[in-house]
Amino acid sequence: MDVVVPLLVILAGFGAIMAGLAWIASRARRKGVGGSVLGAVDETFHPAAYQPRIEIAQQADRKVAIPSAGDPAMP
Predict the structure, then answer these.
(1) Torsional class of 63: left (φ above 0), alpha (ψ -120 to 50), beta (otherwise)
(2) What's the number of CA atoms in the CB half-sphere (13 Å) around residue 72?
(3) pTM beyond cutoff 0.90
C-alpha cells in the first residue's frame, strides 16, 4: 500500500500535464498560432518547411480588402 499512493499521485500528475498539453494544442489549432510556436524548431531542423511558412505569412499580411460592387468608393 505504501507504493500505490505515490504511484497514483505520479500518474495523476502525468495525466494532468498531458490533458493541459492537449488543451493548449487545441487552442493553438483553433487560433492558428501553431506555426509561430514551432518556428524556431522548423528553422533549425526542417528549413524547407520554414521558408514557405514565412512567405505565406508575408502574403497574408500584404492582402488588401477588395471592395464589393455595392461598397462606396474609397478616397
Answers:
(1) beta
(2) 2
(3) no
Rounded-to-integer distance, Cα 2 and Cα 25, Å: 36
pLDDT tens digits, 6-56: 999 999 999 999 999 898 888 877 776 666 666 677 778 877 877 887 888
Chain CA centroid to CA 58, Å: 17
Domain ranges of the chain: 1-31, 33-62
C-alpha cell at 55: 512567405
C-alpha cell at 19: 490533458
The residue behind cell 501553431 is 34
Sign of the torsion angle spanned by Cα atoms 10, 15, 18, 20: negative
